[in-house]
Amino acid sequence: MSPIKPSAHLAEVRYEIRGALTRRARELEAAGTPIIKLNIGNPARYGFSVPAHLREAIAAHLHESEAYGHEQGLEEAREAIATLQRARGARHVQVERIFIGNGVSELIDLSLRALLQPGDEVLLPSPDYPLWSAATILNGGVPRYYRCLAENRHMPDPEEMEALITPRTRALVMVNPNNPTGAVYPRALLEQIVEIAARHRLLLLCDEIYDEILYDGAPFQPLAEIAGTTPCLSFGGLSKVHRACGYRVGWLSLSGDPARTHEYRDALQLLAALRLCANVTAQWAVIPALQDAPTINALTAPTGRLYQARQAVLDGVASSQFLDVVAPEGAIYAFPRVRSDAIANFDDNAFALRLLEEESVLIVPGTSFNVPNSRHMRLTLLPQPAQLREVFVRMERVLERMAVEETPRAAVAAG
């Protein structure tokens, strides 16, 4: 009998954060090899805990969590989100323009499904968080990538962005603070991007899931305040700042001119209703998460674990013969690269596989984030600083072997 063929859409979709390298790591673990995993931003797997008062809020409302909820989410939780967004300067944000989903991942898919016709284009960063590309493709859209180069501190070039716009462009996506680079976009840059979106009547979508994870005083600027009446979706959630990935609670806030967005809002509501509702139980954690004192600051302060892990990465790069990096200003990742003057013919996927097979370290190669010919790798900052220091010792050994192997080839080519 002939095999069942999957959708042709999937041929263009990648998610190597949990892909072939991860599967190989599991095989090595099953054979008894301990693996240091730097591939995923899952705080609980590295010993971080959800703040106790969030757990207590869920426990106190278990008896109210047994029926389907409103398709847009608990009204009390949506009011807390709307209050936060208005305090940040978002225009026209009301409870009926807030949607809670099973994580931001679900809402990214829902928001693009409500927007795109086949062949519509979406401007995405390169590197991107690959779910944005996947959701664009799976909903019939076409990704168009604007570069965020290390030479520009991983900031986009507004002129390059605008040059990519065609009559089929519908939306412009940003991730700020950025995954995978840790870049935090300054206000002046965001103002330029908003002007482009307004001029071309594009919908702005800004993934702000890392909004409070900041280092060395880097300021986070919410996009919705600058967008004003320009339609804008702002995404947030509990998974990173509140270390509650497994709760699967994310939200989107629709701001901007209601006259331009009311049909789109209704489309979002239809799609939300078709999946009935988001997980009710975990939504009770939203109110204390947003209204009580923040708990992330102790981790990002100079004495905090995330800050110290970031410093271990910066120190490891500084001591390397092969690496450089733009210091991350936010989020929980670093995006170092192998210098071309150190190893000319570098393949990031081959390096990641060798690092796993030879030194038992799992990373994500930069090409996984839709960067062509990447020399980068993404490392999570969640392991203990001491373990990150050990990672750089192992990484340097593999890079030294690769450099030695390249020398004979270079001599032959020169001869």
From TrEMBL:
InterPro entries: Ala_Aminotransferase, Aminotransferase_I/II_large, PyrdxlP-dep_Trfase, PyrdxlP-dep_Trfase_major, PyrdxlP-dep_Trfase_small. GO terms for molecular function: transaminase activity. The keyword Transit peptide does not apply. Residues 34-391 form the Aminotransferase class I/classII large domain. Its EC number is 2.6.1.2. Gene3D superfamilies: Aspartate Aminotransferase, domain 1 (3.90.1150.10), Type I PLP-dependent aspartate aminotransferase-like (Major domain) (3.40.640.10). The keyword Membrane does not apply. Coiled coil: none annotated. Keywords: Aminotransferase, Pyridoxal phosphate, Transferase. It comes from the Bacteria. Its cofactor is pyridoxal 5'-phosphate. Belongs to the class-I pyridoxal-phosphate-dependent aminotransferase family. This is alanine transaminase. It comes from Dyella acidisoli. The lineage of its organism: Bacteria, Pseudomonadati, Pseudomonadota, Gammaproteobacteria, Lysobacterales.
